[in-house]
Amino acid sequence: MKYLRIAKLLTAHVVGWGSDGGFGVRAGLGTLVAEVLVEELKEKSVNEIEVLAVVEEEGDSWMTPIHEYLTNETLPAERKKARAIKRKSQRFAIINGMLYKKSFLGPWLRCVGPSQANYVLREIHEGSCSMHAGTRSVIAKALRIGYYWPTMHKDARALIKACQECQVHKPVPRNPQEKLNPITSPWPFYKWGIDIAGPFPEGPGKVKFLIVAMDYFTKWIEAKPVATITGNQVKKFVWENIVCRFGLPGEIISDNGKQFRDNPFKDWCEKLCIQQHFASVKHPQTNGLVERANRSLGEGIKARLGKDNKNWMEEISHVLWAHRTMVKSSNGDTPFSLTYGTEAVIPAEIGMPTFRTAEVDVAKNDEALKINLELLEEKREQAAIREAKSKRQMEKYYNAKVRNTSFKPGDLVYRNNEASHAEDTGKLGPKWEGPYEVTEALGKGSYRLKDRNGKELPRTWNVCNLKKCYIHKM
Ligand SMILES: [Zn+2]
What we know:
It holds the Pfam family Integrase_H2C2. GO terms for molecular function: RNA-directed DNA polymerase activity. Residues 184-343 form the Integrase catalytic domain. Helix content is 45%, strand content 15%. The longest helix is centred in the C-terminal third of the chain and has 39 residues, at 362-400. It is built from 19 helices and 14 strands. The chain has helices spanning 2-14, 29-43, 46-52, 64-72, 79-89, 114-126, 135-145, 152-161, 164-169, 231-246, 258-261, 265-271, 288-305, 312-324, 335-340, 347-351, 355-358, 362-400, 417-420; strands at 92-95, 98-101, 109-111, 147-148, 191-197, 209-215, 221-226, 251-255, 275-279, 412-416, 432-443, 446-450, 461-462, 466-468. Zinc ion binds at residues 125-126, 132, 163, 165-166, 303.
Protein backbone atom coordinates (compact mmCIF):
# COMPACT_ATOMS: atom_id res chain seq x y z
CA MET A 1 0.00 0.00 0.00
CA LYS A 2 2.82 2.34 0.85
CA TYR A 3 4.46 1.69 -2.52
CA LEU A 4 1.28 2.59 -4.29
CA ARG A 5 1.00 5.77 -2.37
CA ILE A 6 4.50 6.81 -3.32
CA ALA A 7 3.85 5.94 -6.93
CA LYS A 8 0.75 8.07 -7.17
CA LEU A 9 2.31 11.02 -5.45
CA LEU A 10 5.30 10.94 -7.71
CA THR A 11 3.62 10.41 -11.08
CA ALA A 12 3.56 14.15 -11.54
CA HIS A 13 7.32 14.11 -12.00
CA VAL A 14 7.25 11.56 -14.76
CA VAL A 15 5.03 13.70 -16.95
CA GLY A 16 7.19 16.03 -18.97
CA TRP A 17 10.27 13.95 -18.42
CA GLY A 18 12.59 13.65 -21.38
CA SER A 19 11.86 17.24 -22.36
CA ASP A 20 15.09 18.22 -20.72
CA GLY A 21 16.85 15.19 -22.10
CA GLY A 22 16.45 12.20 -19.78
CA PHE A 23 18.42 12.76 -16.62
CA GLY A 24 18.20 16.51 -16.89
CA VAL A 25 18.32 19.12 -14.25
CA ARG A 26 15.46 17.73 -12.25
CA ALA A 27 16.03 14.00 -12.71
CA GLY A 28 16.67 13.30 -9.07
CA LEU A 29 15.97 10.41 -6.80
CA GLY A 30 12.22 11.04 -6.85
CA THR A 31 11.97 10.57 -10.59
CA LEU A 32 13.97 7.36 -10.57
CA VAL A 33 11.88 5.83 -7.83
CA ALA A 34 8.69 6.88 -9.55
CA GLU A 35 9.60 5.16 -12.78
CA VAL A 36 10.12 1.79 -11.15
CA LEU A 37 7.04 2.02 -9.02
CA VAL A 38 4.65 3.20 -11.68
CA GLU A 39 5.25 -0.04 -13.56
CA GLU A 40 4.23 -1.99 -10.52
CA LEU A 41 1.05 0.02 -10.31
CA LYS A 42 -0.23 -1.28 -13.67
CA GLU A 43 -0.66 -4.74 -12.24
CA LYS A 44 -2.85 -3.68 -9.36
CA SER A 45 -6.63 -3.86 -9.25
CA VAL A 46 -9.03 -0.94 -8.97
CA ASN A 47 -9.63 -1.79 -5.34
CA GLU A 48 -6.16 -0.86 -4.31
CA ILE A 49 -6.28 2.46 -6.07
CA GLU A 50 -9.14 3.34 -3.78
CA VAL A 51 -6.88 2.73 -0.82
CA LEU A 52 -4.82 5.65 -2.03
CA ALA A 53 -7.71 7.93 -1.25
CA VAL A 54 -6.76 7.57 2.40
CA VAL A 55 -3.99 10.05 1.80
CA GLU A 56 -5.23 11.71 -1.39
CA GLU A 57 -7.44 14.72 -0.67
CA GLU A 58 -11.01 14.48 -1.81
CA GLY A 59 -13.05 17.50 -2.80
CA ASP A 60 -12.32 21.09 -1.83
CA SER A 61 -10.04 22.13 0.99
CA TRP A 62 -8.44 25.35 2.19
CA MET A 63 -5.96 25.01 -0.69
CA THR A 64 -8.52 24.96 -3.54
CA PRO A 65 -9.06 28.74 -4.04
CA ILE A 66 -5.32 29.48 -3.85
CA HIS A 67 -4.52 26.64 -6.22
CA GLU A 68 -7.15 27.80 -8.71
CA TYR A 69 -5.93 31.37 -8.65
CA LEU A 70 -2.30 30.40 -9.12
CA THR A 71 -2.95 27.90 -11.94
CA ASN A 72 -5.65 29.62 -14.04
CA GLU A 73 -6.30 32.93 -12.29
CA THR A 74 -9.87 32.10 -11.41
CA LEU A 75 -11.14 34.00 -8.38
CA PRO A 76 -14.33 33.73 -6.33
CA ALA A 77 -17.17 35.94 -7.58
CA GLU A 78 -17.40 37.84 -4.32
CA ARG A 79 -15.03 40.83 -4.47
CA LYS A 80 -13.92 40.82 -0.86
CA LYS A 81 -13.08 37.13 -0.98
CA ALA A 82 -11.29 37.55 -4.28
CA ARG A 83 -9.08 40.26 -2.89
CA ALA A 84 -8.23 38.16 0.16
CA ILE A 85 -7.25 35.20 -2.02
CA LYS A 86 -5.13 37.41 -4.24
CA ARG A 87 -3.21 38.78 -1.28
CA LYS A 88 -2.85 35.41 0.40
CA SER A 89 -1.59 33.75 -2.78
CA GLN A 90 1.53 35.90 -2.82
CA ARG A 91 3.01 33.64 -0.21
CA PHE A 92 2.29 30.44 -2.15
CA ALA A 93 3.62 28.85 -5.32
CA ILE A 94 2.86 25.84 -7.49
CA ILE A 95 5.78 23.52 -8.10
CA ASN A 96 5.08 20.43 -10.24
CA GLY A 97 1.35 20.84 -9.68
CA MET A 98 1.80 20.84 -5.90
CA LEU A 99 1.04 23.82 -3.68
CA TYR A 100 3.92 25.11 -1.54
CA LYS A 101 4.09 27.92 0.97
CA LYS A 102 7.10 30.17 1.44
CA SER A 103 8.36 29.94 4.97
CA PHE A 104 10.26 32.74 6.63
CA LEU A 105 13.36 30.83 7.58
CA GLY A 106 13.17 27.20 6.60
CA PRO A 107 12.37 25.26 3.43
CA TRP A 108 9.38 25.63 1.08
CA LEU A 109 6.50 24.03 2.92
CA ARG A 110 4.37 21.46 1.15
CA CYS A 111 0.69 22.34 1.69
CA VAL A 112 -1.61 19.52 2.72
CA GLY A 113 -5.36 19.15 3.17
CA PRO A 114 -7.17 17.75 6.22
CA SER A 115 -6.72 14.01 5.61
CA GLN A 116 -3.08 14.39 4.59
CA ALA A 117 -2.53 16.57 7.65
CA ASN A 118 -3.99 13.84 9.80
CA TYR A 119 -1.63 11.30 8.22
CA VAL A 120 1.39 13.51 8.89
CA LEU A 121 0.41 14.15 12.50
CA ARG A 122 -0.25 10.49 13.18
CA GLU A 123 2.99 9.40 11.54
CA ILE A 124 4.98 11.87 13.61
CA HIS A 125 3.16 11.26 16.88
CA GLU A 126 2.46 7.53 16.87
CA GLY A 127 3.89 6.16 13.62
CA SER A 128 6.79 3.88 12.90
CA CYS A 129 9.46 6.13 14.35
CA SER A 130 7.90 8.10 17.09
CA MET A 131 7.68 8.28 20.83
CA HIS A 132 4.30 9.93 21.42
CA ALA A 133 5.81 13.38 21.70
CA GLY A 134 3.90 16.49 22.78
CA THR A 135 2.16 19.10 20.61
CA ARG A 136 5.05 21.54 20.31
CA SER A 137 7.55 18.88 19.33
CA VAL A 138 5.18 17.37 16.77
CA ILE A 139 4.44 20.73 15.13
CA ALA A 140 8.07 21.74 15.16
CA LYS A 141 8.94 18.48 13.48
CA ALA A 142 6.18 18.81 10.84
CA LEU A 143 7.31 22.35 9.97
CA ARG A 144 10.94 21.43 9.99
CA ILE A 145 10.43 18.56 7.55
CA GLY A 146 8.35 20.90 5.42
CA TYR A 147 4.58 20.51 5.78
CA TYR A 148 2.06 23.28 6.22
CA TRP A 149 -1.66 23.70 6.80
CA PRO A 150 -3.44 26.58 8.52
CA THR A 151 -4.71 24.73 11.58
CA MET A 152 -1.54 22.85 12.54
CA HIS A 153 -1.55 23.75 16.22
CA LYS A 154 -5.21 23.10 16.78
CA ASP A 155 -5.17 19.74 14.98
CA ALA A 156 -2.06 18.49 16.73
CA ARG A 157 -3.39 19.46 20.14
CA ALA A 158 -6.71 17.67 19.49
CA LEU A 159 -5.04 14.52 18.17
CA ILE A 160 -2.56 14.23 21.03
CA LYS A 161 -5.09 15.08 23.72
CA ALA A 162 -7.24 12.16 22.60
CA CYS A 163 -4.37 9.67 22.18
CA GLN A 164 -5.27 6.77 24.45
CA GLU A 165 -1.69 5.48 24.85
CA CYS A 166 -0.47 8.89 25.94
CA GLN A 167 -3.19 9.35 28.53
CA VAL A 168 -2.55 6.01 30.17
CA HIS A 169 1.23 6.37 30.26
CA LYS A 170 1.73 10.04 31.10
CA PRO A 171 4.00 10.36 34.14
CA VAL A 172 2.49 11.18 37.52
CA PRO A 173 3.31 14.86 38.09
CA ARG A 174 5.59 15.56 41.02
CA ASN A 175 6.53 18.98 42.25
CA PRO A 176 10.26 19.55 42.36
CA GLN A 177 11.84 19.35 45.79
CA GLU A 178 15.05 21.23 45.14
CA LYS A 179 16.40 24.04 43.04
CA LEU A 180 17.65 22.92 39.69
CA ASN A 181 21.38 23.15 39.11
CA PRO A 182 22.08 23.81 35.44
CA ILE A 183 25.29 22.60 33.88
CA THR A 184 26.44 23.83 30.48
CA SER A 185 28.96 21.91 28.43
CA PRO A 186 31.81 23.65 26.55
CA TRP A 187 31.75 21.61 23.34
CA PRO A 188 29.71 18.81 21.74
CA PHE A 189 30.57 15.30 22.90
CA TYR A 190 32.82 16.60 25.67
CA LYS A 191 30.59 15.79 28.61
CA TRP A 192 28.43 12.67 28.80
CA GLY A 193 25.97 11.57 31.44
CA ILE A 194 25.67 7.84 31.91
CA ASP A 195 23.11 5.84 33.83
CA ILE A 196 21.45 2.47 34.10
CA ALA A 197 17.71 1.86 33.64
CA GLY A 198 15.80 -1.23 34.62
CA PRO A 199 15.23 -3.97 35.44
CA PHE A 200 12.84 -4.50 32.53
CA PRO A 201 11.09 -7.81 31.70
CA GLU A 202 13.79 -10.26 30.70
CA GLY A 203 14.39 -10.35 26.92
CA PRO A 204 16.34 -12.71 24.65
CA GLY A 205 19.87 -13.29 25.97
CA LYS A 206 18.55 -12.58 29.48
CA VAL A 207 18.96 -8.84 28.96
CA LYS A 208 17.03 -6.79 31.43
CA PHE A 209 19.02 -3.58 31.95
CA LEU A 210 19.67 -0.64 29.70
CA ILE A 211 22.86 1.43 29.80
CA VAL A 212 21.95 4.93 28.66
CA ALA A 213 24.33 7.77 27.85
CA MET A 214 23.52 11.28 26.72
CA ASP A 215 25.76 14.05 25.47
CA TYR A 216 25.12 17.20 27.50
CA PHE A 217 25.30 19.53 24.53
CA THR A 218 23.62 17.93 21.52
CA LYS A 219 21.41 15.70 23.72
CA TRP A 220 22.42 12.84 21.45
CA ILE A 221 21.45 9.62 23.15
CA GLU A 222 23.08 6.18 23.07
CA ALA A 223 21.71 3.06 24.74
CA LYS A 224 22.47 -0.64 24.92
CA PRO A 225 20.57 -3.49 26.56
CA VAL A 226 22.67 -5.76 28.80
CA ALA A 227 22.10 -8.82 31.00
CA THR A 228 24.29 -7.75 33.90
CA ILE A 229 25.78 -4.46 34.99
CA THR A 230 29.50 -4.80 35.55
CA GLY A 231 32.43 -2.45 35.18
CA ASN A 232 33.49 -4.37 32.09
CA GLN A 233 30.08 -3.91 30.47
CA VAL A 234 30.20 -0.18 31.15
CA LYS A 235 33.75 0.02 29.78
CA LYS A 236 32.70 -1.80 26.61
CA PHE A 237 29.69 0.44 26.19
CA VAL A 238 31.66 3.66 26.58
CA TRP A 239 34.29 2.39 24.16
CA GLU A 240 31.92 1.18 21.45
CA ASN A 241 29.09 3.68 21.72
CA ILE A 242 30.92 6.84 22.74
CA VAL A 243 34.64 6.75 21.99
CA CYS A 244 34.40 4.93 18.65
CA ARG A 245 31.55 7.14 17.46
CA PHE A 246 32.17 10.58 18.93
CA GLY A 247 35.78 10.57 20.09
CA LEU A 248 37.14 10.65 23.60
CA PRO A 249 34.93 12.44 26.08
CA GLY A 250 36.44 14.85 28.59
CA GLU A 251 34.06 14.15 31.43
CA ILE A 252 31.66 11.41 32.38
CA ILE A 253 29.01 12.02 34.98
CA SER A 254 27.25 9.12 36.68
CA ASP A 255 25.88 8.08 40.04
CA ASN A 256 28.33 6.42 42.38
CA GLY A 257 27.25 2.85 41.62
CA LYS A 258 30.14 0.47 41.98
CA GLN A 259 30.26 -0.37 38.28
CA PHE A 260 31.22 3.29 37.67
CA ARG A 261 33.19 4.00 40.85
CA ASP A 262 35.44 0.93 41.04
CA ASN A 263 37.86 -0.88 38.75
CA PRO A 264 38.09 -1.78 35.92
CA PHE A 265 36.16 1.30 34.79
CA LYS A 266 37.99 3.71 37.12
CA ASP A 267 41.48 2.74 35.92
CA TRP A 268 40.38 2.75 32.33
CA CYS A 269 39.03 6.32 32.61
CA GLU A 270 42.26 7.48 34.26
CA LYS A 271 44.33 5.94 31.50
CA LEU A 272 42.32 7.78 28.85
CA CYS A 273 42.29 11.03 30.88
CA ILE A 274 38.52 11.02 31.24
CA GLN A 275 37.47 12.89 34.36
CA GLN A 276 34.80 11.14 36.35
CA HIS A 277 32.22 13.03 38.36
CA PHE A 278 29.74 11.41 40.68
CA ALA A 279 26.31 12.63 41.55
CA SER A 280 24.81 11.08 44.65
CA VAL A 281 21.70 8.98 44.16
CA LYS A 282 20.05 10.94 46.95
CA HIS A 283 20.46 14.13 44.94
CA PRO A 284 19.38 13.18 41.45
CA GLN A 285 19.17 16.86 40.43
CA THR A 286 22.89 17.06 39.74
CA ASN A 287 22.55 14.15 37.41
CA GLY A 288 19.15 15.41 36.28
CA LEU A 289 19.84 15.39 32.57
CA VAL A 290 20.51 11.70 32.34
CA GLU A 291 17.78 10.87 34.80
CA ARG A 292 15.40 12.78 32.59
CA ALA A 293 16.60 11.13 29.41
CA ASN A 294 16.27 7.82 31.12
CA ARG A 295 12.73 8.59 32.09
CA SER A 296 11.68 9.75 28.66
CA LEU A 297 13.32 6.67 27.19
CA GLY A 298 11.21 4.49 29.47
CA GLU A 299 8.06 6.53 28.73
CA GLY A 300 8.60 6.29 24.99
CA ILE A 301 9.07 2.54 25.10
CA LYS A 302 6.02 2.13 27.32
CA ALA A 303 3.73 4.16 25.10
CA ARG A 304 4.86 2.27 22.03
CA LEU A 305 4.35 -1.13 23.56
CA GLY A 306 0.99 -0.73 25.23
CA LYS A 307 0.56 -3.26 28.01
CA ASP A 308 2.19 -6.24 26.32
CA ASN A 309 5.80 -5.34 26.99
CA LYS A 310 7.90 -8.41 26.26
CA ASN A 311 9.47 -6.70 23.21
CA TRP A 312 10.93 -3.63 24.87
CA MET A 313 14.32 -4.46 23.38
CA GLU A 314 13.15 -4.28 19.80
CA GLU A 315 11.57 -0.91 20.40
CA ILE A 316 14.74 0.72 21.67
CA SER A 317 16.13 1.67 18.27
CA HIS A 318 12.83 3.33 17.28
CA VAL A 319 12.66 5.30 20.49
CA LEU A 320 16.30 6.37 20.22
CA TRP A 321 15.66 7.49 16.67
CA ALA A 322 12.61 9.49 17.68
CA HIS A 323 14.57 11.11 20.48
CA ARG A 324 17.36 12.10 18.13
CA THR A 325 15.08 13.67 15.51
CA MET A 326 12.77 15.53 17.89
CA VAL A 327 13.34 19.21 18.66
CA LYS A 328 14.59 19.70 22.22
CA SER A 329 12.98 22.68 23.87
CA SER A 330 16.18 23.51 25.78
CA ASN A 331 18.17 24.43 22.66
CA GLY A 332 15.53 24.56 19.89
CA ASP A 333 17.32 22.02 17.70
CA THR A 334 17.27 18.28 17.16
CA PRO A 335 20.21 16.19 18.39
CA PHE A 336 20.50 14.89 14.84
CA SER A 337 20.97 18.32 13.27
CA LEU A 338 23.44 19.42 15.94
CA THR A 339 25.43 16.27 15.27
CA TYR A 340 25.25 16.06 11.48
CA GLY A 341 24.31 19.61 10.47
CA THR A 342 21.10 18.64 8.67
CA GLU A 343 17.74 17.08 9.44
CA ALA A 344 17.14 13.36 9.00
CA VAL A 345 14.60 12.11 6.44
CA ILE A 346 11.74 10.37 8.26
CA PRO A 347 9.14 7.89 6.85
CA ALA A 348 6.34 10.48 6.64
CA GLU A 349 8.45 12.35 4.08
CA ILE A 350 8.66 9.35 1.77
CA GLY A 351 4.96 8.48 2.14
CA MET A 352 4.16 12.07 1.18
CA PRO A 353 7.17 13.79 -0.39
CA THR A 354 8.20 17.23 0.84
CA PHE A 355 10.12 19.72 -1.24
CA ARG A 356 13.36 18.16 -0.05
CA THR A 357 12.58 14.55 -1.00
CA ALA A 358 10.62 15.31 -4.19
CA GLU A 359 13.13 17.74 -5.63
CA VAL A 360 16.40 16.20 -4.53
CA ASP A 361 19.14 17.03 -7.01
CA VAL A 362 21.94 14.51 -6.77
CA ALA A 363 24.64 16.85 -8.02
CA LYS A 364 23.64 19.83 -5.96
CA ASN A 365 22.74 17.80 -2.89
CA ASP A 366 26.36 17.12 -1.98
CA GLU A 367 27.24 20.76 -2.31
CA ALA A 368 24.28 21.85 -0.22
CA LEU A 369 25.22 19.36 2.47
CA LYS A 370 28.75 20.76 2.57
CA ILE A 371 27.29 24.19 3.12
CA ASN A 372 25.19 22.79 5.92
CA LEU A 373 28.30 21.42 7.55
CA GLU A 374 30.01 24.77 7.26
CA LEU A 375 27.09 26.35 9.00
CA LEU A 376 27.10 23.67 11.67
CA GLU A 377 29.53 25.51 13.89
CA GLU A 378 27.39 28.59 13.88
CA LYS A 379 24.33 26.48 14.50
CA ARG A 380 25.94 24.90 17.54
CA GLU A 381 26.92 28.26 18.92
CA GLN A 382 23.38 29.53 18.58
CA ALA A 383 22.08 26.39 20.21
CA ALA A 384 24.44 26.94 23.14
CA ILE A 385 23.13 30.47 23.60
CA ARG A 386 19.51 29.31 23.45
CA GLU A 387 20.30 26.52 25.89
CA ALA A 388 21.81 28.86 28.46
CA LYS A 389 18.76 31.08 28.15
CA SER A 390 16.32 28.22 28.48
CA LYS A 391 18.10 26.94 31.58
CA ARG A 392 17.54 30.24 33.31
CA GLN A 393 13.86 30.09 32.37
CA MET A 394 13.60 26.51 33.56
CA GLU A 395 14.94 27.45 36.99
CA LYS A 396 12.33 30.16 37.27
CA TYR A 397 9.61 27.78 36.18
CA TYR A 398 10.58 25.07 38.63
CA ASN A 399 10.39 27.47 41.51
CA ALA A 400 6.93 28.75 40.61
CA LYS A 401 5.14 25.55 39.58
CA VAL A 402 1.90 24.83 41.42
CA ARG A 403 -0.62 22.17 40.60
CA ASN A 404 -4.27 23.19 40.65
CA THR A 405 -7.04 20.89 39.44
CA SER A 406 -10.68 20.21 40.25
CA PHE A 407 -13.42 17.95 38.87
CA LYS A 408 -17.19 18.02 38.89
CA PRO A 409 -19.72 15.13 38.88
CA GLY A 410 -19.94 13.55 35.42
CA ASP A 411 -16.27 14.18 34.60
CA LEU A 412 -14.28 11.17 33.43
CA VAL A 413 -10.98 10.61 35.21
CA TYR A 414 -8.01 8.23 35.28
CA ARG A 415 -6.66 6.92 38.58
CA ASN A 416 -2.95 6.81 39.47
CA ASN A 417 -2.12 3.13 39.19
CA GLU A 418 0.57 3.37 41.86
CA ALA A 419 -2.14 4.36 44.33
CA SER A 420 -4.90 2.00 43.18
CA HIS A 421 -2.83 -1.04 42.11
CA ALA A 422 -5.64 -1.96 39.71
CA GLU A 423 -3.18 -2.93 36.97
CA ASP A 424 0.21 -4.62 37.02
CA THR A 425 2.78 -2.15 38.30
CA GLY A 426 6.54 -2.32 37.77
CA LYS A 427 8.69 -0.27 35.48
CA LEU A 428 6.66 -0.93 32.32
CA GLY A 429 3.14 -1.07 33.81
CA PRO A 430 0.71 1.74 32.96
CA LYS A 431 0.89 4.84 35.15
CA TRP A 432 -2.86 5.51 34.97
CA GLU A 433 -5.89 3.23 34.81
CA GLY A 434 -9.59 3.76 34.20
CA PRO A 435 -11.49 5.75 33.10
CA TYR A 436 -13.98 6.29 35.94
CA GLU A 437 -16.82 8.77 36.36
CA VAL A 438 -16.88 11.31 39.18
CA THR A 439 -20.16 10.94 41.12
CA GLU A 440 -19.62 13.41 43.95
CA ALA A 441 -17.17 16.18 44.85
CA LEU A 442 -16.64 16.10 48.62
CA GLY A 443 -14.45 19.21 48.83
CA LYS A 444 -10.78 19.59 49.72
CA GLY A 445 -9.84 17.62 46.66
CA SER A 446 -11.60 14.35 47.44
CA TYR A 447 -14.04 12.63 45.14
CA ARG A 448 -16.29 9.58 44.89
CA LEU A 449 -16.04 7.55 41.69
CA LYS A 450 -17.94 4.84 39.85
CA ASP A 451 -16.65 2.46 37.17
CA ARG A 452 -17.95 1.98 33.63
CA ASN A 453 -20.58 -0.53 34.83
CA GLY A 454 -21.97 2.03 37.25
CA LYS A 455 -20.50 0.32 40.34
CA GLU A 456 -19.47 2.73 43.10
CA LEU A 457 -15.78 2.42 44.09
CA PRO A 458 -14.80 1.94 47.73
CA ARG A 459 -13.03 4.85 49.53
CA THR A 460 -12.79 8.41 48.35
CA TRP A 461 -10.04 9.46 45.95
CA ASN A 462 -7.84 12.51 46.24
CA VAL A 463 -7.21 14.86 43.33
CA CYS A 464 -3.46 14.16 43.52
CA ASN A 465 -4.17 10.61 42.31
CA LEU A 466 -6.62 11.58 39.56
CA LYS A 467 -6.39 13.20 36.16
CA LYS A 468 -8.90 14.18 33.52
CA CYS A 469 -9.68 11.68 30.77
CA TYR A 470 -10.37 12.76 27.21
CA ILE A 471 -12.36 10.44 24.96
CA HIS A 472 -11.72 9.86 21.26
CA LYS A 473 -14.34 11.38 19.01
CA MET A 474 -14.11 9.40 15.79
ZN1 LIG B 1 0.31 9.29 21.96
